[in-house]
Task: inverse folding
Protein backbone atom coordinates (compact mmCIF):
# COMPACT_ATOMS: atom_id res chain seq x y z
CA UNK A 1 0.00 0.00 0.00
CA UNK A 2 1.30 3.43 -0.82
CA UNK A 3 1.33 6.15 1.82
CA UNK A 4 -0.97 8.08 -0.47
CA UNK A 5 -3.91 5.84 0.39
CA UNK A 6 -4.49 7.87 3.58
CA UNK A 7 -4.68 11.17 1.65
CA UNK A 8 -8.27 12.26 0.84
CA UNK A 9 -9.47 11.45 -2.68
CA UNK A 10 -10.12 15.12 -3.50
CA UNK A 11 -6.56 16.11 -2.58
CA UNK A 12 -5.08 13.29 -4.66
CA UNK A 13 -7.18 14.24 -7.68
CA UNK A 14 -6.31 17.89 -7.08
CA UNK A 15 -2.65 17.04 -7.75
CA UNK A 16 -3.49 16.34 -11.38
CA UNK A 17 -5.42 19.58 -11.80
CA UNK A 18 -2.97 21.77 -9.86
CA UNK A 19 -0.42 22.20 -12.69
CA UNK A 20 -3.25 23.55 -14.86
CA UNK A 21 -4.79 25.76 -12.16
CA UNK A 22 -4.42 28.82 -14.40
CA UNK A 23 -6.72 27.14 -16.88
CA UNK A 24 -9.29 26.75 -14.13
CA UNK A 25 -8.85 30.34 -12.93
CA UNK A 26 -9.16 31.72 -16.46
CA UNK A 27 -12.27 29.57 -17.01
CA UNK A 28 -13.84 31.27 -14.00
CA UNK A 29 -12.79 34.69 -15.27
CA UNK A 30 -14.29 33.94 -18.68
CA UNK A 31 -17.58 32.83 -17.14
CA UNK A 32 -17.62 35.92 -14.94
CA UNK A 33 -17.28 37.83 -18.22
CA UNK A 34 -20.33 35.98 -19.57
CA UNK A 35 -22.29 36.78 -16.40
CA UNK A 36 -21.15 40.43 -16.56
CA UNK A 37 -22.31 40.89 -20.15
CA UNK A 38 -25.60 39.24 -19.26
CA UNK A 39 -26.12 41.75 -16.46
CA UNK A 40 -25.18 44.65 -18.72
CA UNK A 41 -27.80 43.78 -21.32
CA UNK A 42 -30.91 44.79 -19.30
CA UNK A 43 -29.01 47.82 -17.99
CA UNK A 44 -28.16 48.99 -21.51
CA UNK A 45 -31.67 48.36 -22.78
CA UNK A 46 -33.01 50.32 -19.79
CA UNK A 47 -30.56 53.12 -20.60
CA UNK A 48 -31.51 53.10 -24.27
CA UNK A 49 -35.18 53.47 -23.46
CA UNK A 50 -34.58 55.90 -20.61
CA UNK A 51 -32.28 58.27 -22.45
CA UNK A 52 -32.75 57.40 -26.07
CA UNK A 53 -36.03 59.23 -26.72
CA UNK A 54 -34.46 62.65 -26.29
CA UNK A 55 -33.54 64.43 -29.53
CA UNK A 56 -29.93 65.03 -28.61
CA UNK A 57 -29.44 61.53 -27.23
CA UNK A 58 -26.67 59.20 -28.42
CA UNK A 59 -26.45 58.53 -32.19
CA UNK A 60 -28.54 55.56 -33.39
CA UNK A 61 -25.58 53.73 -34.94
CA UNK A 62 -24.38 53.11 -31.39
CA UNK A 63 -27.28 50.75 -30.74
CA UNK A 64 -26.13 47.95 -33.09
CA UNK A 65 -22.48 48.65 -32.30
CA UNK A 66 -22.98 48.30 -28.55
CA UNK A 67 -25.49 45.45 -28.80
CA UNK A 68 -23.52 43.40 -31.31
CA UNK A 69 -20.30 44.29 -29.47
CA UNK A 70 -21.78 43.02 -26.26
CA UNK A 71 -22.80 39.76 -27.91
CA UNK A 72 -19.36 39.42 -29.48
CA UNK A 73 -17.72 39.86 -26.06
CA UNK A 74 -20.21 37.44 -24.52
CA UNK A 75 -19.59 34.89 -27.29
CA UNK A 76 -15.83 35.21 -26.93
CA UNK A 77 -16.02 34.80 -23.16
CA UNK A 78 -18.31 31.81 -23.58
CA UNK A 79 -16.01 30.17 -26.12
CA UNK A 80 -12.93 30.91 -23.99
CA UNK A 81 -14.70 29.56 -20.88
CA UNK A 82 -15.66 26.30 -22.58
CA UNK A 83 -12.32 25.91 -24.30
CA UNK A 84 -10.31 26.58 -21.12
CA UNK A 85 -12.54 24.29 -19.11
CA UNK A 86 -11.99 21.39 -21.52
CA UNK A 87 -8.30 22.25 -21.86
CA UNK A 88 -7.88 22.00 -18.08
CA UNK A 89 -9.85 18.76 -17.89
CA UNK A 90 -8.08 17.19 -20.88
CA UNK A 91 -4.60 18.03 -19.54
CA UNK A 92 -5.47 16.75 -16.07
CA UNK A 93 -6.99 13.56 -17.52
CA UNK A 94 -3.84 12.96 -19.56
CA UNK A 95 -1.64 13.26 -16.46
CA UNK A 96 -3.98 11.11 -14.39
CA UNK A 97 -4.11 8.41 -17.08
CA UNK A 98 -0.34 8.49 -17.42
CA UNK A 99 0.07 8.08 -13.66
CA UNK A 100 -2.38 5.15 -13.76
CA UNK A 101 -0.61 3.40 -16.60
CA UNK A 102 2.73 3.94 -14.84
CA UNK A 103 1.25 2.24 -11.78
CA UNK A 104 -0.13 -0.56 -13.97
CA UNK A 105 3.30 -1.14 -15.52
CA UNK A 106 4.89 -1.52 -12.08
CA UNK A 107 2.35 -3.80 -10.43
CA UNK A 108 3.49 -6.84 -8.54
CA UNK A 109 3.15 -10.04 -10.59
CA UNK A 110 0.54 -11.39 -8.16
CA UNK A 111 -1.80 -8.45 -8.84
CA UNK A 112 -1.98 -9.44 -12.51
CA UNK A 113 -3.17 -12.91 -11.53
CA UNK A 114 -6.19 -11.31 -9.81
CA UNK A 115 -7.00 -8.51 -12.23
CA UNK A 116 -8.92 -8.96 -15.45
CA UNK A 117 -7.70 -6.88 -18.41
CA UNK A 118 -11.14 -5.23 -18.73
CA UNK A 119 -10.81 -3.82 -15.22
CA UNK A 120 -7.47 -2.26 -16.05
CA UNK A 121 -8.81 -0.80 -19.31
CA UNK A 122 -11.79 0.75 -17.52
CA UNK A 123 -9.70 2.21 -14.73
CA UNK A 124 -7.00 3.65 -16.95
CA UNK A 125 -8.99 4.71 -20.01
CA UNK A 126 -12.61 5.44 -19.09
CA UNK A 127 -12.62 6.40 -15.43
CA UNK A 128 -10.19 9.37 -15.37
CA UNK A 129 -12.23 11.18 -18.04
CA UNK A 130 -15.48 10.45 -16.21
CA UNK A 131 -14.13 11.57 -12.82
CA UNK A 132 -12.58 14.83 -13.94
CA UNK A 133 -15.44 15.72 -16.30
CA UNK A 134 -18.00 15.25 -13.51
CA UNK A 135 -15.84 17.11 -11.00
CA UNK A 136 -15.38 19.97 -13.46
CA UNK A 137 -19.11 20.14 -14.25
CA UNK A 138 -19.92 20.11 -10.55
CA UNK A 139 -17.34 22.84 -9.97
CA UNK A 140 -18.97 24.98 -12.65
CA UNK A 141 -22.42 24.38 -11.17
CA UNK A 142 -21.05 25.33 -7.75
CA UNK A 143 -19.87 28.60 -9.23
CA UNK A 144 -23.20 29.15 -10.94
CA UNK A 145 -25.40 28.37 -7.96
CA UNK A 146 -23.07 28.32 -4.97
CA UNK A 147 -21.69 31.86 -5.35
CA UNK A 148 -25.14 33.47 -5.67
CA UNK A 149 -26.26 31.34 -2.70
CA UNK A 150 -23.46 32.78 -0.55
CA UNK A 151 -24.34 36.25 -1.81
CA UNK A 152 -27.98 35.67 -0.93
CA UNK A 153 -27.09 34.58 2.60
CA UNK A 154 -25.12 37.83 3.02
CA UNK A 155 -28.04 39.79 1.64
CA UNK A 156 -30.42 38.05 4.06
CA UNK A 157 -28.14 38.99 6.96
CA UNK A 158 -28.18 42.55 5.73
CA UNK A 159 -31.98 42.58 5.56
CA UNK A 160 -32.64 40.98 8.90
CA UNK A 161 -29.88 39.21 10.77
CA UNK A 162 -32.09 37.80 13.53
CA UNK A 163 -34.38 36.06 11.05
CA UNK A 164 -31.41 34.87 9.01
CA UNK A 165 -29.85 33.30 12.07
CA UNK A 166 -33.16 31.62 12.74
CA UNK A 167 -33.23 30.37 9.16
CA UNK A 168 -29.76 28.90 9.58
CA UNK A 169 -31.01 26.79 12.50
CA UNK A 170 -32.28 24.28 9.93
CA UNK A 171 -28.79 24.04 8.38
CA UNK A 172 -27.60 21.19 10.66
CA UNK A 173 -30.84 19.31 9.95
CA UNK A 174 -30.29 19.83 6.26
CA UNK A 175 -26.70 18.60 6.59
CA UNK A 176 -27.88 15.50 8.46
CA UNK A 177 -30.50 14.65 5.84
CA UNK A 178 -28.01 15.16 3.01
CA UNK A 179 -25.46 12.99 4.81
CA UNK A 180 -27.95 10.13 5.09
CA UNK A 181 -29.02 10.48 1.46
CA UNK A 182 -25.37 10.65 0.39
CA UNK A 183 -24.48 7.51 2.27
CA UNK A 184 -27.15 5.64 0.34
CA UNK A 185 -26.01 7.15 -2.97
CA UNK A 186 -22.41 6.14 -2.18
CA UNK A 187 -23.37 2.56 -1.33
CA UNK A 188 -25.43 2.10 -4.47
CA UNK A 189 -22.91 3.90 -6.70
CA UNK A 190 -20.16 1.69 -5.36
CA UNK A 191 -22.18 -1.47 -6.06
CA UNK A 192 -23.09 -0.15 -9.48
CA UNK A 193 -19.41 0.53 -10.23
CA UNK A 194 -18.35 -2.96 -9.10
CA UNK A 195 -21.09 -4.61 -11.13
CA UNK A 196 -20.08 -2.52 -14.14
CA UNK A 197 -16.55 -3.88 -13.89
CA UNK A 198 -17.98 -7.40 -13.85
CA UNK A 199 -19.91 -6.52 -16.99
CA UNK A 200 -16.82 -5.14 -18.72
CA UNK A 201 -14.95 -8.35 -17.91
CA UNK A 202 -17.79 -10.45 -19.35
CA UNK A 203 -17.37 -8.61 -22.66
CA UNK A 204 -13.63 -9.10 -22.35
CA UNK A 205 -14.14 -12.85 -21.88
CA UNK A 206 -16.56 -13.09 -24.80
CA UNK A 207 -14.10 -11.35 -27.11
CA UNK A 208 -11.05 -13.25 -25.93
CA UNK A 209 -12.70 -16.66 -25.83
CA UNK A 210 -14.85 -16.30 -28.94
CA UNK A 211 -13.58 -19.57 -30.39
CA UNK A 212 -14.41 -21.55 -27.23
CA UNK A 213 -17.82 -19.88 -27.04
CA UNK A 214 -18.67 -20.93 -30.60
CA UNK A 215 -17.13 -24.36 -30.25
CA UNK A 216 -19.38 -25.01 -27.27
CA UNK A 217 -22.37 -23.43 -29.00
CA UNK A 218 -22.49 -21.19 -25.96
CA UNK A 219 -23.78 -17.96 -27.52
CA UNK A 220 -27.12 -18.18 -25.70
CA UNK A 221 -25.32 -19.15 -22.47
CA UNK A 222 -22.95 -16.18 -22.73
CA UNK A 223 -25.78 -13.86 -23.69
CA UNK A 224 -27.67 -14.89 -20.56
CA UNK A 225 -24.57 -14.43 -18.40
CA UNK A 226 -24.12 -10.98 -19.87
CA UNK A 227 -27.79 -10.07 -19.38
CA UNK A 228 -27.63 -11.25 -15.73
CA UNK A 229 -24.58 -9.08 -15.11
CA UNK A 230 -26.17 -6.17 -16.98
CA UNK A 231 -29.31 -6.59 -14.85
CA UNK A 232 -27.16 -6.12 -11.76
CA UNK A 233 -25.79 -2.87 -13.18
CA UNK A 234 -29.29 -1.71 -14.05
CA UNK A 235 -30.57 -2.61 -10.57
CA UNK A 236 -27.85 -0.67 -8.76
CA UNK A 237 -27.99 2.24 -11.17
CA UNK A 238 -31.71 2.54 -10.52
CA UNK A 239 -31.16 2.33 -6.77
CA UNK A 240 -28.47 4.99 -6.99
CA UNK A 241 -30.78 7.16 -9.10
CA UNK A 242 -33.62 6.63 -6.59
CA UNK A 243 -31.31 7.63 -3.74
CA UNK A 244 -30.21 10.68 -5.72
CA UNK A 245 -33.82 11.56 -6.47
CA UNK A 246 -34.42 11.68 -2.70
CA UNK A 247 -31.91 14.50 -2.29
CA UNK A 248 -34.07 17.26 -3.71
CA UNK A 249 -37.42 16.42 -2.05
CA UNK A 250 -35.71 15.80 1.31
CA UNK A 251 -33.74 19.05 1.23
CA UNK A 252 -36.83 20.92 0.08
CA UNK A 253 -38.85 19.37 2.89
CA UNK A 254 -36.35 20.58 5.45
CA UNK A 255 -36.26 23.97 3.74
CA UNK A 256 -40.07 24.21 3.85
CA UNK A 257 -40.01 23.49 7.59
CA UNK A 258 -37.47 26.29 7.99
CA UNK A 259 -39.43 28.56 5.70
CA UNK A 260 -42.73 28.19 7.56
CA UNK A 261 -40.88 28.67 10.79
CA UNK A 262 -39.40 31.90 9.52
CA UNK A 263 -42.61 33.23 8.04
CA UNK A 264 -44.24 32.76 11.46
CA UNK A 265 -41.31 34.44 13.18
CA UNK A 266 -41.25 37.28 10.64
CA UNK A 267 -44.98 37.86 10.99
CA UNK A 268 -44.59 37.84 14.75
CA UNK A 269 -41.71 40.33 14.51
CA UNK A 270 -43.68 42.50 12.06
CA UNK A 271 -46.70 42.56 14.34
CA UNK A 272 -44.66 43.22 17.47
CA UNK A 273 -42.19 45.75 16.05
CA UNK A 274 -44.26 47.03 13.20
CA UNK A 275 -41.73 46.10 10.47
CA UNK A 276 -42.96 47.16 7.04
CA UNK A 277 -44.52 44.77 4.53
CA UNK A 278 -41.90 45.67 1.90
CA UNK A 279 -38.98 44.62 4.08
CA UNK A 280 -40.77 41.40 4.95
CA UNK A 281 -41.56 40.66 1.29
CA UNK A 282 -37.97 41.37 0.27
CA UNK A 283 -36.67 38.99 2.92
CA UNK A 284 -39.00 36.16 1.90
CA UNK A 285 -38.26 36.69 -1.81
CA UNK A 286 -34.52 36.44 -1.17
CA UNK A 287 -35.06 33.38 1.01
CA UNK A 288 -37.10 31.66 -1.72
CA UNK A 289 -34.34 32.42 -4.20
CA UNK A 290 -31.82 30.89 -1.81
CA UNK A 291 -33.94 27.76 -1.49
CA UNK A 292 -34.12 27.46 -5.26
CA UNK A 293 -30.32 27.69 -5.45
CA UNK A 294 -30.01 25.04 -2.73
CA UNK A 295 -32.29 22.80 -4.77
CA UNK A 296 -29.83 22.92 -7.65
CA UNK A 297 -26.92 22.38 -5.30
CA UNK A 298 -28.53 19.29 -3.76
CA UNK A 299 -28.67 17.80 -7.28
CA UNK A 300 -24.88 17.82 -7.35
CA UNK A 301 -24.60 15.27 -4.54
CA UNK A 302 -25.21 12.25 -6.78
CA UNK A 303 -22.68 12.96 -9.57
CA UNK A 304 -20.07 14.05 -7.06
CA UNK A 305 -20.50 10.88 -5.01
CA UNK A 306 -20.36 8.78 -8.16
CA UNK A 307 -17.14 10.52 -9.20
CA UNK A 308 -15.65 9.91 -5.77
CA UNK A 309 -16.55 6.18 -5.92
CA UNK A 310 -14.99 5.85 -9.38
CA UNK A 311 -11.92 7.82 -8.23
CA UNK A 312 -11.47 5.44 -5.32
CA UNK A 313 -11.45 2.56 -7.81
CA UNK A 314 -8.72 4.25 -9.86
CA UNK A 315 -6.70 5.18 -6.83
CA UNK A 316 -6.94 1.59 -5.56
CA UNK A 317 -5.17 0.55 -8.77
CA UNK A 318 -2.54 3.18 -8.07
CA UNK A 319 -2.12 1.90 -4.51
CA UNK A 320 -1.98 -1.79 -5.45
CA UNK A 321 1.31 -3.47 -4.46
CA UNK A 322 4.19 -2.64 -6.79
CA UNK A 323 6.95 -4.93 -7.83
CA UNK A 324 9.75 -4.59 -5.30
CA UNK A 325 12.87 -3.35 -7.06
CA UNK A 326 15.25 -2.95 -4.16
CA UNK A 327 18.30 -4.25 -5.98
CA UNK A 328 20.70 -1.49 -6.96
CA UNK A 329 23.58 -3.41 -8.48
CA UNK A 330 24.03 -3.08 -12.24
CA UNK A 331 25.86 -5.45 -14.55
CA UNK A 332 28.55 -3.76 -16.64
CA UNK A 333 27.84 -5.85 -19.73
CA UNK A 334 26.31 -9.17 -20.74
CA UNK A 335 26.50 -11.78 -17.98
CA UNK A 336 28.52 -14.94 -18.46
CA UNK A 337 25.37 -16.82 -17.55
CA UNK A 338 26.37 -18.95 -14.56
CA UNK A 339 23.21 -19.48 -12.53
CA UNK A 340 22.93 -21.29 -9.23
CA UNK A 341 19.93 -21.85 -7.00
CA UNK A 342 20.61 -22.74 -3.42
CA UNK A 343 17.87 -24.18 -1.14
CA UNK A 344 15.27 -22.01 -2.88
CA UNK A 345 11.75 -22.06 -1.52
CA UNK A 346 8.70 -20.45 -3.08
CA UNK A 347 5.12 -20.62 -1.88
CA UNK A 348 2.60 -18.60 -3.89
CA UNK A 349 0.17 -16.54 -1.80
CA UNK A 350 -2.76 -18.70 -0.76
CA UNK A 351 -1.15 -21.95 -1.96
CA UNK A 352 -1.17 -24.91 0.43
CA UNK A 353 2.04 -26.46 -0.92
CA UNK A 354 5.31 -24.77 -1.83
CA UNK A 355 5.91 -24.62 -5.58
CA UNK A 356 9.67 -24.88 -4.95
CA UNK A 357 10.74 -26.77 -1.88
CA UNK A 358 14.39 -26.22 -0.98
CA UNK A 359 15.56 -26.50 -4.57
CA UNK A 360 19.30 -26.59 -5.26
CA UNK A 361 20.54 -26.75 -8.86
CA UNK A 362 22.73 -24.93 -11.37
CA UNK A 363 22.67 -23.80 -14.98
CA UNK A 364 26.19 -23.68 -16.37
CA UNK A 365 27.42 -20.73 -18.42
CA UNK A 366 27.38 -21.51 -22.14
CA UNK A 367 25.73 -24.85 -21.44
CA UNK A 368 22.37 -26.22 -22.50
CA UNK A 369 20.42 -27.32 -19.44
CA UNK A 370 17.03 -28.95 -19.63
CA UNK A 371 14.33 -28.91 -17.00
CA UNK A 372 11.91 -31.80 -17.15
CA UNK A 373 9.26 -33.11 -14.81
CA UNK A 374 5.56 -33.68 -14.43
CA UNK A 375 3.10 -30.85 -14.86
CA UNK A 376 3.05 -28.68 -11.73
CA UNK A 377 6.53 -29.86 -10.68
CA UNK A 378 7.73 -26.24 -10.48
CA UNK A 379 9.61 -25.72 -13.77
CA UNK A 380 7.91 -22.43 -14.69
CA UNK A 381 8.27 -21.26 -11.10
CA UNK A 382 12.05 -21.41 -11.53
CA UNK A 383 11.76 -19.09 -14.54
CA UNK A 384 9.37 -16.88 -12.54
CA UNK A 385 12.09 -16.39 -9.95
CA UNK A 386 14.99 -16.14 -12.41
CA UNK A 387 13.26 -13.24 -14.15
CA UNK A 388 12.61 -11.56 -10.80
CA UNK A 389 8.81 -11.73 -11.09
CA UNK A 390 8.72 -13.10 -7.58
CA UNK A 391 11.10 -13.47 -4.66
CA UNK A 392 12.05 -16.72 -2.99
CA UNK A 393 10.78 -17.19 0.57
CA UNK A 394 14.09 -18.79 1.36
CA UNK A 395 17.45 -19.60 -0.22
CA UNK A 396 19.52 -17.72 -2.80
CA UNK A 397 19.70 -17.37 -6.55
CA UNK A 398 23.01 -16.21 -7.97
CA UNK A 399 23.96 -14.96 -11.42
CA UNK A 400 27.72 -15.02 -12.08
CA UNK A 401 28.14 -15.19 -8.30
CA UNK A 402 26.04 -12.06 -7.59
CA UNK A 403 22.86 -12.46 -5.54
CA UNK A 404 20.01 -11.82 -7.93
CA UNK A 405 18.15 -9.95 -5.18
CA UNK A 406 20.92 -7.32 -5.17
CA UNK A 407 20.60 -6.66 -8.92
CA UNK A 408 18.20 -4.08 -10.27
CA UNK A 409 15.29 -5.76 -12.08
CA UNK A 410 16.26 -4.02 -15.33
CA UNK A 411 19.87 -5.25 -15.12
CA UNK A 412 18.65 -8.77 -14.38
CA UNK A 413 16.05 -8.93 -17.15
CA UNK A 414 18.43 -7.57 -19.77
CA UNK A 415 20.30 -10.87 -19.45
CA UNK A 416 17.37 -13.02 -20.55
CA UNK A 417 15.55 -13.69 -23.79
CA UNK A 418 12.47 -15.80 -23.23
CA UNK A 419 10.18 -17.82 -25.43
CA UNK A 420 7.37 -18.71 -23.07
CA UNK A 421 4.67 -21.35 -23.27
CA UNK A 422 1.96 -18.79 -23.85
CA UNK A 423 3.15 -16.72 -26.75
CA UNK A 424 2.18 -13.10 -26.28
CA UNK A 425 2.26 -10.89 -29.36
CA UNK A 426 1.33 -7.25 -29.74
CA UNK A 427 -1.35 -5.98 -32.08
CA UNK A 428 1.29 -4.51 -34.35
CA UNK A 429 3.39 -5.43 -37.38
CA UNK A 430 5.70 -8.45 -37.69
CA UNK A 431 8.72 -6.13 -37.48
CA UNK A 432 7.42 -4.23 -34.45
CA UNK A 433 6.83 -7.52 -32.66
CA UNK A 434 10.35 -8.71 -33.36
CA UNK A 435 12.23 -5.50 -32.64
CA UNK A 436 9.99 -4.97 -29.62
CA UNK A 437 11.06 -1.90 -27.58
CA UNK A 438 14.44 -1.93 -29.35
CA UNK A 439 15.96 0.14 -32.16
CA UNK A 440 15.09 -1.25 -35.57
CA UNK A 441 17.84 -2.74 -37.68
CA UNK A 442 16.67 -4.07 -41.06
CA UNK A 443 19.65 -6.38 -41.60
CA UNK A 444 19.25 -7.92 -38.16
CA UNK A 445 15.51 -8.26 -38.71
CA UNK A 446 16.10 -10.28 -41.88
CA UNK A 447 18.76 -12.35 -40.16
CA UNK A 448 16.51 -13.38 -37.27
CA UNK A 449 13.53 -13.96 -39.57
CA UNK A 450 15.67 -16.31 -41.63
CA UNK A 451 17.02 -18.03 -38.51
CA UNK A 452 13.46 -18.54 -37.21
CA UNK A 453 12.34 -19.91 -40.63
CA UNK A 454 9.90 -17.08 -41.10
CA UNK A 455 11.56 -15.15 -43.92
CA UNK A 456 9.86 -16.97 -46.80
CA UNK A 457 6.49 -16.75 -45.08
CA UNK A 458 6.89 -13.03 -44.39
CA UNK A 459 7.69 -12.45 -48.09
CA UNK A 460 4.25 -13.81 -48.98
CA UNK A 461 2.49 -11.33 -46.67
CA UNK A 462 0.82 -8.33 -48.38
CA UNK A 463 2.92 -5.77 -46.54
CA UNK A 464 5.93 -7.96 -45.75
CA UNK A 465 7.43 -7.25 -42.32
CA UNK A 466 4.99 -4.34 -41.93
CA UNK A 467 1.96 -6.67 -42.02
CA UNK A 468 -0.10 -6.47 -38.82
CA UNK A 469 -0.29 -9.78 -36.95
CA UNK A 470 -3.74 -9.12 -35.42
CA UNK A 471 -4.76 -9.18 -31.77
CA UNK A 472 -2.19 -11.38 -30.02
CA UNK A 473 -1.03 -12.63 -33.41
CA UNK A 474 -4.45 -14.04 -34.26
CA UNK A 475 -3.74 -13.79 -38.00
CA UNK A 476 -0.88 -16.27 -37.67
CA UNK A 477 -0.81 -20.02 -37.18
CA UNK A 478 0.33 -21.50 -33.86
CA UNK A 479 3.69 -22.48 -35.36
CA UNK A 480 4.17 -19.05 -36.95
CA UNK A 481 3.45 -17.37 -33.63
CA UNK A 482 6.00 -19.61 -31.96
CA UNK A 483 8.60 -18.83 -34.60
CA UNK A 484 7.85 -15.12 -34.31
CA UNK A 485 8.50 -15.39 -30.57
CA UNK A 486 11.79 -17.16 -31.34
CA UNK A 487 12.72 -14.36 -33.77
CA UNK A 488 11.95 -11.81 -31.05
CA UNK A 489 14.18 -13.66 -28.59
CA UNK A 490 16.96 -13.89 -31.23
CA UNK A 491 16.67 -10.16 -31.91
CA UNK A 492 17.12 -9.36 -28.22
CA UNK A 493 20.41 -11.23 -28.28
CA UNK A 494 20.64 -11.73 -24.51
CA UNK A 495 23.32 -13.99 -22.99
CA UNK A 496 20.77 -16.36 -21.41
CA UNK A 497 17.97 -17.89 -23.43
CA UNK A 498 14.97 -19.54 -21.84
CA UNK A 499 12.78 -21.70 -23.94
CA UNK A 500 9.61 -22.86 -22.24
CA UNK A 501 8.38 -25.43 -24.73
CA UNK A 502 4.65 -25.53 -25.35
CA UNK A 503 2.99 -28.81 -24.40
CA UNK A 504 1.00 -28.74 -27.63
CA UNK A 505 2.71 -30.52 -30.47
CA UNK A 506 4.60 -28.23 -32.81
CA UNK A 507 4.41 -28.74 -36.54
CA UNK A 508 7.55 -30.24 -38.01
CA UNK A 509 8.79 -26.96 -39.41
CA UNK A 510 8.36 -25.15 -36.09
CA UNK A 511 10.08 -27.97 -34.28
CA UNK A 512 12.92 -27.70 -36.78
CA UNK A 513 13.07 -23.95 -36.08
CA UNK A 514 13.29 -24.64 -32.37
CA UNK A 515 15.97 -27.29 -32.86
CA UNK A 516 17.97 -25.01 -35.11
CA UNK A 517 17.67 -22.10 -32.72
CA UNK A 518 18.89 -24.38 -29.95
CA UNK A 519 21.80 -25.71 -31.97
CA UNK A 520 22.61 -22.20 -33.22
CA UNK A 521 23.12 -21.07 -29.67
CA UNK A 522 24.43 -24.26 -28.09
CA UNK A 523 27.84 -23.53 -26.56
CA UNK A 524 27.52 -19.76 -27.23
CA UNK A 525 24.69 -18.90 -24.87
CA UNK A 526 23.37 -20.25 -21.63
CA UNK A 527 20.31 -22.19 -22.67
CA UNK A 528 17.57 -23.25 -20.30
CA UNK A 529 15.02 -25.46 -21.97
CA UNK A 530 11.83 -26.55 -20.28
CA UNK A 531 11.08 -29.58 -22.35
CA UNK A 532 7.94 -31.62 -22.58
CA UNK A 533 9.08 -33.68 -25.53
CA UNK A 534 12.27 -35.29 -24.38
CA UNK A 535 13.52 -35.70 -27.95
CA UNK A 536 14.30 -31.94 -27.92
CA UNK A 537 16.87 -32.23 -25.15
CA UNK A 538 18.81 -35.44 -25.83
CA UNK A 539 21.97 -33.47 -26.51
CA UNK A 540 21.65 -31.18 -23.47
CA UNK A 541 24.74 -30.82 -21.30
CA UNK A 542 22.64 -31.46 -18.21
CA UNK A 543 19.07 -32.54 -17.55
CA UNK A 544 17.43 -31.63 -14.24
CA UNK A 545 14.47 -33.82 -13.41
CA UNK A 546 11.97 -32.15 -11.08
CA UNK A 547 9.19 -33.51 -8.91
CA UNK A 548 6.96 -31.60 -6.45
CA UNK A 549 9.24 -28.56 -6.23
CA UNK A 550 12.41 -30.61 -5.68
CA UNK A 551 15.28 -31.84 -7.81
CA UNK A 552 14.76 -35.57 -8.27
CA UNK A 553 17.81 -36.41 -10.36
CA UNK A 554 20.30 -34.77 -12.65
CA UNK A 555 22.72 -35.86 -15.36
CA UNK A 556 23.12 -36.18 -19.12
CA UNK A 557 20.65 -38.18 -21.18
CA UNK A 558 22.95 -41.19 -21.21
CA UNK A 559 23.66 -40.99 -17.46
CA UNK A 560 20.00 -40.71 -16.58
CA UNK A 561 19.02 -43.58 -18.87
CA UNK A 562 21.74 -45.68 -17.27
CA UNK A 563 20.42 -44.76 -13.80
CA UNK A 564 17.00 -46.04 -14.87
CA UNK A 565 15.13 -43.63 -12.58
CA UNK A 566 12.39 -41.05 -13.11
CA UNK A 567 13.86 -39.72 -16.39
CA UNK A 568 14.27 -43.15 -17.91
CA UNK A 569 10.65 -43.90 -16.98
CA UNK A 570 9.52 -40.67 -18.67
CA UNK A 571 11.48 -41.54 -21.83
CA UNK A 572 9.94 -45.01 -21.89
CA UNK A 573 6.47 -43.56 -21.38
CA UNK A 574 6.93 -41.10 -24.29
CA UNK A 575 8.35 -43.83 -26.52
CA UNK A 576 5.24 -45.86 -25.74
CA UNK A 577 3.01 -42.93 -26.69
CA UNK A 578 4.80 -42.33 -29.96
N1 LIG B 1 0.46 -17.58 -9.58
C1 LIG B 1 0.29 -18.71 -8.89
N2 LIG B 1 -0.42 -18.71 -7.75
C2 LIG B 1 -0.59 -19.84 -7.05
N3 LIG B 1 -0.08 -21.03 -7.39
C3 LIG B 1 0.64 -21.11 -8.52
C4 LIG B 1 0.86 -19.96 -9.33
N4 LIG B 1 1.61 -20.34 -10.39
C5 LIG B 1 1.85 -21.67 -10.24
N5 LIG B 1 1.26 -22.14 -9.12
C6 LIG B 1 1.34 -23.50 -8.59
O1 LIG B 1 2.70 -23.81 -8.37
C7 LIG B 1 2.97 -25.16 -8.75
C8 LIG B 1 4.13 -25.21 -9.75
O2 LIG B 1 3.68 -24.63 -10.95
P1 LIG B 1 4.62 -24.44 -12.23
O3 LIG B 1 3.86 -23.60 -13.20
O4 LIG B 1 5.94 -23.96 -11.80
O5 LIG B 1 4.72 -25.93 -12.76
P2 LIG B 1 5.35 -26.48 -14.12
O6 LIG B 1 6.26 -27.57 -13.71
O7 LIG B 1 5.90 -25.39 -14.93
O8 LIG B 1 4.07 -27.09 -14.82
P3 LIG B 1 3.73 -27.24 -16.39
O9 LIG B 1 4.70 -28.25 -16.91
O10 LIG B 1 2.33 -27.76 -16.37
O11 LIG B 1 3.85 -25.91 -17.00
C9 LIG B 1 1.68 -25.73 -9.30
O12 LIG B 1 1.10 -26.53 -8.28
C10 LIG B 1 0.81 -24.52 -9.58
O13 LIG B 1 -0.54 -24.79 -9.34
Result:
Amino acid sequence: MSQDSSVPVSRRLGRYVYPYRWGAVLTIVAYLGVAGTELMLPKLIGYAFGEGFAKDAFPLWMVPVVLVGLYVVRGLCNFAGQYLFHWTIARSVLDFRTALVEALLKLDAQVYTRMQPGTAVTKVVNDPQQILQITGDVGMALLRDGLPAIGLVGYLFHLNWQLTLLALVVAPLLALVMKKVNRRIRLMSSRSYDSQLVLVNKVDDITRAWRVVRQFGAAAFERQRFVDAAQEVRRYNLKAAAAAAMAQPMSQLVASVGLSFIICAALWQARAQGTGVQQFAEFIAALLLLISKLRHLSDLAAPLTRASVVAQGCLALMDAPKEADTGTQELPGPARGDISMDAVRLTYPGAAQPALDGLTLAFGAGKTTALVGASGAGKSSIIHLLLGFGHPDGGHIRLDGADVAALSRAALRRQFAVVSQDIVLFDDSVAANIAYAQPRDEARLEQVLRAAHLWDFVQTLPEGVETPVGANGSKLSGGQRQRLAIARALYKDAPIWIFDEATSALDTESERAVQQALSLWAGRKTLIVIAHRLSTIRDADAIHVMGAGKLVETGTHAELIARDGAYAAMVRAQAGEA
The pocket of adenosine-5'-triphosphate is lined by residues 113, 348, 351, 355, 373, 375-381 (CB under 6 Å). The chain has a mean pLDDT of 86. The two ends are 52 Å apart (CA to CA).
